[in-house]
């Protein structure tokens, strides 16, 4: 392993200054992904700036009924928070579907968003990988692609985004709060991750030195009718083949509102906006759900190994929407079909 320096600034401002001035510096928080990469030689920073003990770990309701999640809030603490469990159960379920209990105890909110793909070629320093080394080529193009993406791919990369939490946050219209040398900015989560295009190594819109300090989630009036479902090869500690985050508002038999995001199938957490647009105002029927998912997935570019993800994503999403349609009406509402 390459030698590196280690510092632990006592403020976010000092951390930003330390990383911004050193092109070879990276942030360290939970380290559940980064330390693996250091050992494998995938990442070779000259300096680690530890932000894990900054006062950025609070999880708080906001006055409008939303949620503010500190960047270093641990995944297990966030999933267990009573307000999250009660008002954003979709997010709690996505967190509990990810990793293992031990990893969730250490992994942070920002680290979860920034975790890197588990493409086997990316994790093999001897394989060609544009994400690891721009211009090197992509071994997955002629390789084994069972776990790769079918949406948002390019000829340069088809690695799937691995996060469950980010899929739920995409459905919830979350906003990422970022601090840089020039001040703070807010980025909608659906614009935070970049499609690979011809630069798969550029994974987010973050500039070097910018630090994620929080994630804000606006209130969702029909969050009590939401679900996260994950399909995977093992019952636990496995990445998604397909996952679905959904919330649905049905009134008088029609879709009054819907949030839908897919995991395991996209190079980024995939907000299914084509399906959402097709659904809103239409009948809350299985046939309409199937048509909407067909429209969403028409843009997919499958390989032989991962073509199964298209019918799997469609049937999983339709099943989740059907389940939400049939759920008992929220307390005080009697207008469900
Ligand atoms: Fe690298 Fe992406 Fe190709 Fe995997 S799919 S080898 S991450 S460029």
TrEMBL record:
Single GO term (MF): oxidoreductase activity
Alphabetical UniProt keywords: Oxidoreductase
Keyword Oxidoreductase appears in the UniProt entry: yes
Pfam families xref list: CO_deh_flav_C (PF03450), FAD_binding_5 (PF00941)
Superkingdom of source: Bacteria
Residues annotated as domain FAD-binding PCMH-type: 1-222
PANTHER family, alphabetized: OXIDOREDUCTASE (PTHR42659:SF1), XANTHINE DEHYDROGENASE SUBUNIT C-RELATED (PTHR42659)
Descriptive protein name: Xanthine dehydrogenase family protein subunit M
